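ugh ok so i messed up the first submission bc i forgot one of the chains. this is the corrected input, ALL of the components this time, i swear. 438 residues overall. if the numbers dont match what u have on ur side tell me asap before i send this to the collaborators (the ones from the other lab, u know who)
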Amino acid sequence: MAASMCDVFSFCVGVAGRARVAVEVRFVSSAKGKGLFATQPIQKGETIFIERPLVAAQFLWNALYRYRGEHISPTPEGCWAQQPLRMEETCDHCLRALEKAEENAQRLTGKPGQVLPHPELCTVRKDLHQNCPHCQVTYCSTECLLAAAEQYHRVLCPGPSQDDPLHPLNKLQEAWRSVHYPPETASIMLMARMVATVKQAKDKDRWIRLFSQFCNKTANEEEEIVHKLLGDKFKGQLELLRRLFTEALYEEALSQWFTPDGFRSLFALVGTNGQGIGTSSLSQWVHACDALELKPQDREQLDAFIDQLYKDIETATGEFLNCEGSGLFVLQSCCNHSCVPNAETSFPENNFLLHVTALEDIKPGEEICISYLDCCQRERSRHSRHKILRENYLFVCSCPKCLAEADEPNMTSEEEDDEEDEEGEPEDAELGDEMTDV
Ligand SMILES: [Zn+2]
Ligand SMILES: [Zn+2]
Ligand SMILES: [Zn+2]
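and heres the new structure output, hopefully the right one now
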């Protein structure tokens, strides 16, 4: 059953200067499904909409690492010894980074004495942080503590059993970590929060309708996705996760999600629709610096300082990619992909609020497209772009760039593709959208 259009917009939060969102959802074709279209002129750089997720969750490896503060041994996917440096504690509800921008800079540059100018631009308020009184999980504010409790945390709170390995939720999370190594691209806890949300909801049907809004795949397509996420032994692993998931969370109103077919569908839904969420108090501080009105000389100085800071971070930490977790966004999920997108997604508020911003002027009636590929992947040949999209999202791109390049046989050689395969890029690196705009 499709959700009503009203539901599709119900997680949008206001955009300054607009009475309502300047987009509508239309059915495009049976191949493409839905698409998002402008209803009013939108200018380059304008925020098209801001949306909060139906559910979001931190990646489990991140959460475990922060909590125990210990090293994770190298995984079959390769060593990730540098990962700990970018671990940052986040709000369990909105994924807001809880570290001050300056502390963040100190940790990432490895310079304990690093000082940031304009400290007032950092919005992290440690005095507002709260812990769940039962399980001690941390929130950025009373609002998040209450919102989590209201939506799903009453069901999921382990209480004093937070460390008990025999608690059903801990067994589930442990099983997940043992089958899904970093880089993490989906989270079993996102699925747990979906179930808990329905369990706690007064209007269960509304939530079930909302979750059913995300595109449905055929059984074969779902298997491909699960295979991609869990590897060759996926069938046995999926069954193990289903058993533990059922033990921890069974809900009569959702009995179909706990059947082998239903669980596979749920898993595929999270795998293809989960949007990576990257939060960082430092990048928010940088955005705020960019927005400052300064004398040309001061501007130059501040820009040079920030450039140097990023250089130092790169030297000390390597790539600064802050992906903390993932979420399900109902309106954004209606946005189709293009290799030449006219809009992009970002998380400039240092929390799970997704901003979709125009990359060029968009006329009424024009489709709004984002790219599911990061900028490096977008520069690749049509052949390898298609390979990534097919494997991770199961569709064949027919955007203007792909159509134009279809006539250029040189651009699509098999050789290039083989070469790229041998580069040995991390398995799941392509799954999420670009995580950060730092
Ligand atoms: Zn929060
Ligand atoms: Zn709790
Ligand atoms: Zn394309």
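quick check: Residues 382-423 form one domain. that seems consistent at least. The first strand starts at residue 12 and ends at 13.
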